[in-house]
Structures are given as C-alpha cells and as structure tokens.
C-alpha cells in the first residue's frame, strides 16, 4: 500500500487496550488493522501490504511476510524482542518513552510495601490476626541506602525520589562522572566493576538497566551471596537481568529478605492465556511481591506513549524524521 500524500497509511497492531486507545486518537488517513496476535493467520493477509507494524516483538518469520514495512513501532522502551537482523531493509525501529514517573512510583510503592510487609499485614488482619502489633517494628526508607543499577530515565527519577525520602543513594553506571552524580544528588557513583561493593552496602537494590548481552544474569548466585540478609531486590528492568534459579533460591532460602518483581521469565502469547511467570514456584513464597510487568502501565505513560506513536504515524506519511529511532537509517529529530 502506498502512503503517498493523499492515500492512507496501513498499520498492523495486535488487538487489545493499546489498539483501542490508539484508534480513538488517529485521523481518517490511518487505517488500523487489529489482529488477534501477530503470529495469527489473519496477519498474513494484512502484513504484506502494511506500511507500519506496531509490536514489541518481531521474528524472522514475521518479517519475511512484511517486506513493505517502513516503520516498526514498539509500544514500550524495550526492543529486546525485536530480531534486528530480520528487520526489512526499508524499515526503521522506533521505541517510545515517557514511563519514568510510572515505573519509579511503582518501585517506591513496592519498596514501602516490602519494608512494612504490607501483603502480610493485610493477609493477617483479614483473618482477625492482630499479632503484628506485638511483633518487631517494621522498617522505614529514611536512612537506608538505595543501590541503583543503571542511571537512565528510571534511575535518575529514583535518585530524586530517594532523596525526598531521606535515603542515601549509591549508583552503578557505565558513566560514573562525579559531576553527573552531584547534579543528581547521588552520594556514591561507580562503574560496573564496583557492582559487588554496591551489593554489599545497599539495603534495597533497584535494577533499572535494559536487557542486553552485558546485563544478562547480572545478578546471580555470587551476587546474592554478597547482598545483606536483610536487604531487598526490586526488578523493574527485565527478568533475564537476574538469574532465575538464583533468585528463587535467594528468596526461598532467605539469603535476602525479599523482592519486588515486575518482570519475568515466562510470558503469555495472548492476553487470555494463563501462564505462571517462572518455572519456579515464586507464587508460593511470602517474601516476594509479584506483578505482571505492569510498572509502566499508567495513564501518564500511556498518554505520553500514544502521542509519540501518533506523531510517528504522521511522520510516516509526511516523510519527516521519526522520533526515538533505535535501529535503521531514517534518523529521528529527537531521541527523548
Ligand atoms: N517494568 C516496566 O513496566 C518497564 C517500563 C519501562 C522500562 N522498563 C525497563 O527498564 C529499563 C530501563 O529504563 P530507562 O527508562 O531507565 O532506560 P534508559 O533511559 O534507556 O536507561 C537505561 C540505562 O541503563 C544503563 N545501562 C547499563 N548497561 C547498559 C547497556 N548494556 N546498554 C544500555 N544501557 C545500559 C544506562 O545507564 P548509564 O548510562 O548510567 O550506564 C542507561 O542509561 C528499560 O530498558 C526496560 O527494560 C520496564
């Protein structure tokens, strides 16, 4: 399908809430084809003719059927499920941002809930058990050390909020520039070669790095051994940044006090599928708060991301440079 001025731009997207919200924001010159899944038979009919695919995942098989694509647009920041080697020659890959407030609010919600044992308090009072009033006092954030791994948009926002809570902040970053640390109000900043020092000192470790070759299994058996037994881990990054078996062991054997985990090891391929998030029974542990990769899914993030997607579809039609290009030649006017 041509997207010359005056004709429609054809866009394929998986059915669901994002498709519904996006449809309400699009002009008549964009034709949105919502398919049950991007692996479904139906996609084979529309994909060869599509100008854009909105998806967080693309495989060689899907791409081989989509040679006319000019834009592959994700609905989140992560592009780890896009097989870059299979991206059609004329297409660029763009991601979206705007999640840093939502994810950081989530991280602090989980930190507070872990330190106060909110799930346990709630469960016990529901059965008439008031014993927490005579148990050891719960913990505060104030005075504790947040160990930040990654100083991107989430890491920077987390440093700002940690300060407001009266915490100390240590960070591990690829760019341990003291000037940058001072600007962000970070007490200690170091390179990844100091990861083990940070793990020894932190009361709460927050993972905020992308999934990549360098970050895969960054936290494993050895790293859990170094963490304090009364410390907590919060993972809002990607499941594979933490070794799955080592995490289960660290929690079930109380090597660390607890964890808040939003990102996992097994995902459903359709919205209605029931899939446990790991091959290990995390759901049987009472020292983990589990959520279904939802940290960024708020009104603020969604509005910001939909605006960026609508803008890229408009640029697809006009030929202007795309926003947030992460792969491909049609470089963006802006990368924020
Ligand atoms: N759970 C959710 O709903 C949700 C939502 C949004 C994002 N996320 C995850 O959170 C991650 C971080 O988000 P963000 O907005 O902070 O991303 P970002 O702004 O792109 O920052 C990521 C930071 O990670 C650090 N980093 C360390 N090793 C890296 C490597 N090998 N390659 C690239 N960066 C590396 C970099 O910090 P330095 O330059 O300081 O080293 C970089 O700035 C995302 O990539 C995504 O996986 C999850």
What's the arrangement of secondary structure elements?
Blueprint: E1 9-14, H1 17-23, E2 30-35, H2 41-46, E3 52-54, H3 60-63, E4 71-73, E5 92-94, H4 100-116, H5 118-126, E6 145-149, H6 153-164, E7 168-172, H7 178-184, E8 188-190, H8 195-201, E9 204-207, H9 221-226, E10 232-235, H10 244-252, E11 258-261, E12 288-290, H11 299-318, E13 325-327
Parallel strand pairs: 1-2, 1-3, 3-4, 4-5, 6-7, 6-9, 7-8, 9-10, 10-11, 11-12
Antiparallel strand pairs: 5-13
Helix pairs in contact: 4-6
Bound molecules: NADP nicotinamide-adenine-dinucleotide phosphate (NAP).
Residues 76-78, 99-100, 103, 150-155, 173-175, 208-212, 214-215, 236-238, 262-263, 293, 295-296 line the site of NADP nicotinamide-adenine-dinucleotide phosphate.
Notable characteristics:
336 residues; seven-stranded parallel beta sheet; globular; binds NADP nicotinamide-adenine-dinucleotide phosphate; alpha/beta; disordered N terminus
Rg from alpha-carbon coordinates: 22 Å
Number of strands: 13
Strand order of the largest sheet: 8-7-6-9-10-11-12
Mean pLDDT reading: 93
Between the first and last Cα atoms, what is the distance in angstroms? 30 Å
Helix proportion range? 25-40%
Bound molecules: NADP nicotinamide-adenine-dinucleotide phosphate
Uncertain segments are 1-5, 332-336
Order of helices and strands: EHEHEHEEHHEHEHEHEHEHEEHE
Beta-strand share of residues: 15-25%
Total number of helices: 11
The largest pleated sheet is described as:
7 strands, parallel
């Amino acid at each position: 399908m041509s997207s010359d001025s005056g004709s429609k731009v054809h866009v394929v997207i998986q059915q669901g809430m994002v498709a519904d919200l996006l449809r309400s924001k699009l002009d008549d010159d964009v034709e949105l084809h919502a398919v049950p899944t991007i692996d479904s038979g139906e996609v084979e009919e529309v994909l060869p003719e599509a100008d854009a695919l909105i998806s967080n995942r693309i495989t060689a098989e899907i791409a081989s059927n989509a040679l006319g694509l000019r834009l592959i647009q994700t609905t989140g920041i992560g592009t780890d499920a896009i097989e870059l080697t299979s991206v059609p020659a004329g297409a660029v890959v763009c991601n979206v941002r705007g999640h840093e407030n939502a994810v950081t609010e989530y991280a602090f919600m989980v930190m507070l809930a872990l330190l106060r044992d909110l799930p346990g308090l709630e469960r016990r009072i529901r059965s008439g058990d008031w014993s927490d009033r005579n148990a050891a006092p719960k913990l505060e954030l104030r005075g504790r050390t947040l160990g930040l791994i990654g100083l991107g948009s989430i890491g920077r926002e987390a440093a700002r909020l940690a300060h407001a809570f009266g915490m100390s902040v240590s960070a591990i970053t690829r760019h341990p520039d003291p000037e940058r640390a001072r600007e962000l109000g970070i007490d200690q900043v170091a390179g990844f070669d100091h990861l083990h020092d940070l793990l020894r000192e932190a009361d709460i470790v927050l993972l905020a790095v992308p999934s990549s070759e360098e970050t895969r299994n960054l936290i494993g058996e050895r790293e859990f051994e170094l963490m304090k037994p009364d410390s907590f881990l919060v993972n809002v990054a990607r499941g594979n940044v933490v070794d799955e078996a080592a995490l289960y062991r660290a929690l079930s054997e109380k090597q660390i006090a607890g964890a808040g985990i939003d990102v996992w090891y097994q995902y459903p391929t359709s919205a209605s599928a029931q899939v446990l998030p790991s091959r290990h029974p995390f759901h049987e542990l009472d020292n983990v708060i589990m959520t279904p990769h939802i940290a960024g899914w708020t009104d603020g993030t969604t509005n910001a991301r939909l605006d960026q997607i609508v803008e890229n579809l408009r640029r697809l039609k006009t030929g202007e440079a795309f926003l947030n290009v992460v792969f491909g030649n049609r470089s963006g006017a802006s990368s924020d």
